[in-house]
Amino acid sequence: MEPQDEVRQVYEETQARMAQLYREYEQIKATQARLKARNQAALDQERDRLQQELRQLEAEFGLTLLFHLGEAARECWQEILAQENFWQLVRFGGLGFVLGLLVKSLMG
C-alpha cells in the first residue's frame, strides 16, 4: 500500500469516526433536552405546590395573629377602662393619645 493510500484510509476512518461521534453527541443533547423538560415540569409543579402551601401558611398565621392581637387589645382596653386615671387622660390628652398608647402597648 502506498503512503497516499494509507493517509486516505486514515482520513476516511477519521471522518467516519467523527461523524459517528457527532451523531452520538446529538443523541446525548436530545436526551438531555428531554430530561431537562421532564425535570423542569416536575420542578415547576413542586415550586407551585410550595408557593400554595406558603400562601396558606401566611393566611393561617395572619388569622392567628389577628385573633391573638384582638384578644390582647380587648384585655388591654379592659385594663385601661378599669383605671380611674383613664378618664382624666381622655379629658386632658384626647382620645387619639389614648389610642396611640393602646397601639404602642400592643406592639411593645
Structure commentary:
This protein has 108 residues and is mainly alpha-helical. It has three helices and no strands. Helix 1 crosses helix 3 and helix 2 packs across helix 3. The termini are far apart. The model has no long low-confidence stretch (mean pLDDT 77).
How would you sum up the global shape? rod-shaped
**Which quaternary structure do these chains form?**
single chain
Distance between the termini: 97 Å
Low-pLDDT segments, ≥5 res: none
Strand content: under 5%
**Helix and strand sequence:** HHH
Helix content estimate: over 70%
| Helix-strand makeup class | mainly alpha
Number of strands: 0
Number of helices: 3
What would the average pLDDT be, to the nearest integer?
A: 77
Largest sheet: none
Radius of gyration (CA) equals 38 Å
Summarize the structure.
The protein has 108 residues and is mostly helical.
Record the SSE blueprint.
Layout: H1 3-82, H2 85-93, H3 95-107
Helix pairs in contact: 1-3, 2-3
Features:
108 residues, mainly alpha
